[in-house]
Design a protein that fits this description.
TIM Barrel; alpha/beta; seven-stranded antiparallel sheet; six-stranded parallel sheet
């Protein structure tokens, strides 16, 4: 399953910024609906990290294919005033009929490179902006967070259970999907399990233990109900003096019946308690019993616990994974890169800024990933993708590649065995031309992409900056447009 639209309202084309509709009416009234190329990219890595995991494409494409204005949507717009009746009639027939290229979901991505390229009429490209950014930005943020957590655990077992702390229904569903892409083994969100095919996981709450006369009775009742998947929550009263001891009593009964069990810690000093619990279990001959921990965990805490040798089998991560925690939002933007002129030719355009990092890179582009003989990613290069005269990266040749924002910084690289184009076609004339991969396939791609990155890009503290460069032709085009713009001032 690639992931169906997250809620019924997601197919409404009202899910856009209001200025997109006011501009759309202006374009329509001025008879401006020429071909346009928009690109979605981001400006900085979230969490001060060294990589991003691109996510949300499947959800966005499925929304896009049903993105339209219902009669109630038209009535709402009519009631706002300011929209002409003939324009509202135009919106009645609105659907996306353009083309879309994008990275594969699960691909490691880096600032300033186009992750999505939209090619269509100016009006339709403008109307879909808000939905596209909303979907890609949030899921990429959470997939990246989950990947950081997974790497910090030593590629261990991560359980996502952030439903109750997620930002609403859409936030919870999107977060479960994205967290699975990023490396979570499963989710507590049962609806996400059904809708996306994600394994559902769960143990018991403290209320279960408190609902019985004694802790031992609570554990025994649960074991009788779910003998093949019993995990005892042992910190309701006293972890070491009652919880683990009662778990051992009931757990031995399970083992006698041919089953196994685990325990969960949800409070206290996780390093100390997990070590003590492991020692007590092992001394009781229960070295196969597992330990799951939770309690506001994130990648930094998990990395520290792993470094100290905490004997944890599964990490339960909720709030700080599904909300982004220290990072409120992903910095993805959607900018015009080329437009058709009066002669029907596509011409590059640029947004100029006094801040060099906010000046866009003009033109229709492809992103090439350069890899060495060990299949490790070396650099990404933005090249012109003019169908009549494309910038091709040929293997075995030496090239100069330039920093996207600083025209004097560059490096030379002789391409090795592999130069892979990352932008791939997904929609043509509004129709899906490639089947969307399953979530399991996307998750596997995430793991493969992370494996292709050197460890220096994946460390939590002060990660190495991955090279994103532009070709000489693209650099020359950008400098030419900047010069032309400054010459007019």
């Amino acid at each position: 399953m690639s992931g169906a639209p997250i809620s019924d309202s997601a197919s409404s084309a009202l899910f856009t910024d209001f200025y997109s509709l006011t501009m759309a009416q202006g374009y329509w009234k001025k008879n401006i609906n020429h071909r346009a190329i928009f690109e979605m990219f981001f400006r900085r890595q979230p969490f001060d990290g060294g990589f991003t995991i691109f996510a949300g494409l499947g959800t966005m494409i499925e929304k896009l294919q049903s993105f339209s204005f219902s009669e109630s949507d038209i009535e709402y717009l009519r009631g706002l005033g300011g929209f002409e009746e003939a324009f509202l009639d135009y919106l009645r027939g609105f659907h996306f009929s353009g083309s879309l290229l994008a990275f594969d979901e699960g691909t490691a991505a880096f600032p300033l490179e186009p992750l999505v390229r939209v090619d269509g009429g100016l009006i339709e490209c403008q109307i879909i902006e808000g939905m596209l950014l909303n979907t890609i930005n949030f899921q990429s943020l959470i997939a990246t967070k989950a990947a950081r957590v997974w790497l910090a655990s030593g590629k261990g077992s991560i359980m996502e259970f952030g439903l109750r702390r997620a930002q609403g229904y859409d936030g919870a569903m999107s977060a479960s999907r994205a967290a699975y892409i990023g490396g979570a083994a499963g989710t507590s969100n049962t609806l996400a399990g059904k809708q996306f095919g994600i394994p559902v996981l769960g143990t018991m709450a403290h209320s279960w233990v408190m609902a019985f006369p004694t802790e031992e009775e609570a554990f025994r009742a649960y074991a009788e109900l779910y003998p093949s998947r019993t995990i005892f929550l042992i910190d309701t009263y006293n972890t070491l003096k009652s919880g683990v001891l009662n778990a051992i009593k009931v757990g031995k009964e399970l083992i006698s019946a041919g089953e196994n069990f685990g325990v969960r810690l949800d409070s206290g000093d996780i390093q100390y308690l997990s070590g003590e619990v492991r020692r007590i279990l092992d001394e009781a001959g229960l070295n196969r019993a597992t330990i799951t921990v939770s309690n506001d965990l994130d990648e930094s805490i998990i990395e520290a616990l792993v470094a100290k040798g905490a004997p944890v089998n599964t990490w339960g991560v909720g709030t700080r994974m599904v909300t982004g925690a220290t990072e409120a939002a992903f910095t993805g933007v959607y900018k015009l890169a080329a437009r058709e002129n009066a002669e029907g030719t596509l011409i590059p355009v640029i947004k100029f800024s006094d801040n060099p990092e906010k000046t866009t890179t003009p033109g229709i582009k492809q992103v090439w990933r350069l890899k060495d003989s060990q299949d490790k990613a070396v650099a990404d290069v933005l090249c012109l993708d003019d169908p009549h005269n494309p910038d091709l990266i040929e293997e075995g040749k030496r090239y100069a590649f330039w920093h996207p924002s600083a025209d004097y910084r560059h490096f030379y690289h002789e391409t090795g065995e592999k130069a892979e184009p990352l932008l791939k076609p997904w929609l043509e004339n509004g129709k899906l031309i490639s089947p969307l991969p399953s979530l399991a396939e996307i998750r596997a791609r995430t793991e493969e992409n992370l494996e292709s990155l050197d460890s220096t890009y994946k460390r939590l503290l002060n990660p190495h900056v991955y090279k994103v460069s532009v070709s000489s032709r693209l650099r020359d085009l950008k400098l030419e447009l900047i010069k032309n713009y400054l010459g007019d001032l």
